[in-house]
Amino acid sequence: MTGGVGAWHRRIAAVLCTCLAPSLAPAQQALPSLPRLRFLTSARQLGPVGYRDPVGAVSPDGSWLAYTSGGNLLLTHISGGPVRQLGEPVQRIYELAWHPNAAQIAVRERRGDGPEPVWSVYDVASGSRRDLWGGQTAIQGTLRSASDVRNVRRSVVALRGLSWSPDGLRVAGVIVSGQQSELWVISADGSEAVGETHSRELSFPAWSPDGASVACLAQTDGAPVVTLPCGDPIAGEEWEAFGPIAFSPDGARLYYSHPNDHGTVDLHVRPLDGGDGVRLTSFARDSYAPSVTRDGRVVFGVQDYRTLIAAVPADGGTVRQITAFQSETPSWSPDGTHLGFTFGSWRRVADDLHYPDIAQHLGIVPSSAALPAAAPWEVVRATASEDQGMTWSPGGRWIALHSHAEGSDDIWIQPADGSSSARRVTSGGHETGWPRWSPDGAWIAFGSDRQEGNAWRGTPFILPVDPRTGSALGPARRVILEAFDGDVDQVEWTASSDSLVFDAFEGIDRRGIYVVSRTGGRPRPIHRFASEHRVSGLGVSPDFAWVVFVAPGPNGRLQLFKVETSGGDPVQLTFDATDKTQPSVSPDGREIAFTVFHFSTQFWAIEP
Length: 608
Known about the structure:
The protein is mainly beta and 608 residues long. The protein folds into two domains: 54-240 and 267-272, 7 Propeller (Methylamine Dehydrogenase, Chain H), CATH 2.130.10; 305-602, 6 Propeller (Neuraminidase). 5% of the residues lie in helices and 49% in strands. Strand 36 (455-466) and strand 37 (471-472) form a beta hairpin. The termini are far apart.
């Protein structure tokens, strides 16, 4: 080195001064501008199985946030304050869309009195509800395709993604049939309609602020992309996007959710005249479903979903945690030394798009480890299909499970040692539940929906099996329930293997637990209780002396309760401020495993 140490130090100092001196004063101004996020509220969901995320959107004038929790439509001011319920609870709410006057909300919902989701309109001021277009069941209009123009009728209940135009005079919506879609623009009173066919599946239409065009997502090579006008890529580019999309107030930018490297989606914004998208969020779970106010505020949802397995003594006491990763639906091995369960990320947006091909698998952990397990001790089954509800045969040789593999919704059996792959043993299932092996090993019981008139109703089934080969000895038999109108959920066995225990929905917030002969007949009620929680499961003691079920406790959280099968008042077993579901009784009857869950959507605002 020439010039000596002093000269070298002076040169380095000069370089540092040159690089740093101009930016010392305005250093913070040179940093990229970060969004100003404000937490609004959190919407609780009532269970990890059978539920999708709460939905929500901000009113166009920026005053109100409408969102769902269970089957309730809720309203709160964007600045905070009391939460008000609109209308009466329904079975489930799928979509909502604000009218530009911020005084009405269109809601796609399944009510207790109908088999299919219907569109309703709620009045914000009064909270009253009426049928969209006065209960009109069909739209009639002109449908254009590449080859012809026809006059057609379409069912109103087939419409998805309704979106009002900025002037409130028109409504856009899509109807999907297979891989083909129709985009409809309908007059606000439902009297006139114009449709256009598209060869791709369309979803989430959104009006431009000037009302001149409708953007939407279109399925392309297995992924949804933004199209504007609906069905046509923007300037030849394809932006992969998930969930609802929304324009900025000036129409120059589009807000959408885009996949990241972790398997979830983040909120992005992108100029429509060219340029790259900019990521606006970086949460651990999905952030999606933007809605935009006229002054530029953006409201979006963030999924907060956690499940784990815990256990409590059958007479109540200290709860111990068994897993520390996302896991649910526990079941005991015949010797009580291990627990089987469902595990996986269950990512809201990416998995919903490909449902039922979702990230849910089957695993095992020891039941009495000193510390919670951080991962499955053994993976029993890992497929692209929803695998749930594993149960061992009494001798521990076989495992029965529920799966959507090969497009099914049925029961499968595989060797417990993994020596061969699972085989499907039922067919024609619809919303099939978790299988349960009878104590004598000769039967598998499960619930599955069957159509009765225009409605689907949960029904118990039994399947005869050979415990030596794990093979079905015939088709599944429906257990006929006499003088019974409930919707059967989970099915379990009595100790003698000659009777079934099941829980059933008897209204939006009413449940019952019953016992019936394996051959059918009139069910005997064991206990009735109030709960809106669906697919909560139940557990039965080995001697059939009591059953354990899930219901709201005095603190408002879903807790475990035990009631004797001979009747009487239930006894509460858990008390902490977490929600529980899916109880399973150990083979010796001394302990109850269950799922602890937290499932909600957080609503955040990006301030303008």
